[in-house]
Amino acid sequence: MITDVTIIGAGATGLFTALDLTLRGIKVTIIDKGGLINGTSGRMHGLLHSGARYVTTDMASAKQCIKENEILNRIAPFAVFDTKGLFVAVKGDDDSFIDKFLKGLNEAEIPYSVVDNPLELEPNLNREVYYAVRVPDKVVDPFKLFGGVAYLAKQKGAKFLLYTEVKKISGSKVITDKGEVESKLLINAAGPWAPKISAMHSPESKIIELMPTVGIMLVYDKKLNKMVLNRLRPPSDGDIIVPYYETSILGTTAQVVEDPDNFEVAEEDLQYLIEEGSAMVPKLLEIKPKRYYYSVRPLLKGASARLATRDFEIYDEGDMLTIVGGKLTTSRLMAEKLSDLASEKLGINSSSKTENIQIPDALQLFALKNTIGDEIYGLGFALSKLEEALQVD
């Protein structure tokens, strides 16, 4: 197969990059060893960040998040739920952090309001919550969003090689377990697996400064909150509860690992999450979690997992561009910057169109509507049928 650009990784950034490039008239083939958003992107906690979480530690990311929050809500409203968010201080928390937080919100131009009676909005909150700030956090269904992004990219000419493993890279040629793909430029959007892809391309290359970080999340088979709840303190473990459809998701830890494919969840980490989360919602101590899951974030190397920036970096490795860092919330922006550089390297004068394009609700096209299987299989069936439709003929 011959194409202009080969993208390795069908996660949030890879898919938005495929769409961005195809809208510029560039031929794209996207490869992934799994299906759509089968790695980090499909294992997030559902939060579409307002940026408020980062206003005291990572202002650049905070400003990116509030802008992209608004863009994604506009271009894919079917996948976004405008729940709003509450940052709450519990008796014993550091009062001085409140002023830092409000100052940061103002600097990042994130709209907010102080809530006088937060228990009226969220009855399950701890009675010892004494201060609350409402921010424009939202909830996103990543499968709906990126099912639409992938479908539109396919409509615009992108080729998909899903469930296809990269075995070797020779220059700009990718050898997979199903054949070869030749292109003018490679894009490495493999997230926490980006260093492995980079090593295939340039065995001596050590330019990628990555800090793979595991985040564990607990799912409760009951919706305990209507708004996203955040602890009004510096980002830490067990300080966010996301309402996701009829469940609540408690997160998250931040543990640096060397190998994203080699991690075991410890029982004490799960218990610590519950203890910390219960300071906001005491009922977490009474209800047994349904399950847990985790993701590995491809963070840029920093002093620690909590202090590491959520900004992103693009590395130019000659005939391959590698992108790491960032968040699902900023994936469209990441793809735009990556596509700008790719277009420049290809000698194509073009600009991004993804900020204003409407993403289709593609999963609805493949749903088992009005059948006995509709309630049982739901969007999982639709996603599998979409993946089949995306595959190269």
Topology:
Elements: E1 5-8, H1 12-23, E2 28-31, E3 47-48, H2 59-75, E4 80-81, E5 85-90, H3 96-108, E6 113-114, H4 118-121, E7 129-135, E8 138-140, H5 142-155, E9 159-161, E10 166-170, E11 173-176, E12 179-182, E13 185-188, H6 194-201, E14 210-220, E15 228-231, E16 240-244, E17 247-251, E18 255-256, H7 267-277, E19 291-300, E20 312-316, E21 320-325, H8 331-345, H9 374-390
If you had to describe this structure to a student in words, what would you say it looks like?
This protein is α+β, with helices and mostly antiparallel strands and 393 residues long. 28% of the residues lie in helices and 25% in strands. The protein contains 9 helices and 21 strands. The chain has helices at residues 12-23, 59-75, 96-108, 118-121, 142-155, 194-201, 267-277, 331-345, 374-390; strands at 5-8, 28-31, 47-48, 80-81, 85-90, 113-114, 129-135, 138-140, 159-161, 166-170, 173-176, 179-182, 185-188, 210-220, 228-231, 240-244, 247-251, 255-256, 291-300, 312-316, 320-325. The strands form 4 sheets. Strands 5, 6, 7, 14, 15, 16, 17, 18 and 19 form a 9-stranded mixed beta sheet that branches. A 6-stranded mixed beta sheet has the order 9-2-1-13-21-20, sandwiched between helices. Helix 1 (12-23) runs parallel beside helix 5 (142-155). The longest helix is centred in the first third of the chain and has 17 residues, at 59-75. The mean pLDDT is 93.
